[in-house]
Amino acid sequence: MLVKLVNTKREQSLTNNFLAKKSVYDITKFTTLDYQDHLACILWFAKCNMRCSYCYNAKIVDGEGVLKNQEVFNFLQSRIGKLDAVVLSGGECTLNPDIVEFCQEIRDLGFKIKIDTNGLNPDIIKDLIDFSLVDFIALDYKAPAKKFKEVTKNTSIEKFYKTLDTLIDKKFPFEVRTTIHSAFLNEDDINSIILDLSDRKYEGTYYIQNYLHVEDTIDKLPEFSEPINKGLISNIIPISFRN
User: Fold this and answer.
1) Please, what sign has the CA dihedral across residues 66, 68, 73, 78?
2) Whole-angstrom distance, CA of residue 67 vs CA of residue 228
3) Which of 11, 76, 153, 186 is the most exposed place for a label (fewest CB within 10 A)?
4) Above 90 in pLDDT, residue 189?
5) Position 6 confidence tier, pLDDT thresholds 50, 70, 90
C-alpha cells in the first residue's frame, strides 16, 4: 500500500518516482454503468495503439497524462467505503509501463478492478490475471480479420487473438463487445466475428453496440450510422444489443 513504510532509500526513491509520474488523463468520479452491479470510478489512461476513426476519446488517445499518480491515489483513498471498484480505460491502459504496479496499489486499497482493453498486449493481460490484479475484462473485438487494419489502423490482430484465447482458456470473467459504424462494419462482418467466437468456444455474451455520434472523433465521420439489422445477426452464441 502506498502509505506503508519503506525500508530503504532505494525503495523510497522508486515509490516517489512512481507517484510523481503522470499516467491518467482524467477521472470519472462515479459510474453505475461501466462495471455491472458495481459502484465504480473510471481512470482514463492516455495513449493508444489503435486509431479507430469513430473513437470519441481523441484527446486521450493522442494526449499525455495530466494527473500525477499521487493525485489519483489520493482520490481513490477518499473513495474507500464509497465505491466498490475502479475501471481502467483509455486510450489503452495496458500500454502504461507501470500498469502492474498501478493495479497492485489499487488492489491494496481494497477495490475490485475492471479493465477495458483492445487486447493488443496479451502478455501484460496474462500477468494481471496470474497476479490476481484484475477481476473483470471488457475486450473490444474491433473488426474481423479482413477489416481489422482498416478499422484500427493496426495490423496486430494475432495479438488480439492471443488475448482472446487466453481469456477463454483460463475461463476468466470477461465480455466481448463490438462498436458498429455502418461506414466500416455490416451484418456480414458481425456474423464473421460471431462465427469466430463460436469456433474459439467463447461461452459468454457478445455485446453489440451501435455508434453514437459525437463531434470530437478521431476522424470526421457522417453523423448518421445505419443501425444494425438484428434480424440478420446469427444466434449461435448469446447476443445482447446495448443500444
Assistant:
1) negative
2) 38
3) 11
4) yes
5) very low
- The backbone torsions φ and ψ at residue 26, rounded to the nearest 5 degrees and listed phi first, read -160, 165
CA distance 182 to 88: 28
Q: Please, are residues 139 and 163 in contact by the beta-carbon 8 Å criterion?
A: yes
Residues 6 or more apart from 85 whose CB is under 8 A from it?
35, 38, 39, 40, 111, 112, 113, 114, 135
Strand partners, 88: 43, 115
The structure's pTM equals 0.92
Q: What amino acid is encoded at 117 in this protein?
A: T
* Structure-block grid coordinates of residue 236: 449461435
Distance CA 62, CA 58 (A): 6
Q: Check residue 83 and report its DSSP letter.
A: B
pLDDT in tens, 83-137: 999 999 999 999 999 999 999 999 999 999 999 999 999 999 999 999 999 999 9
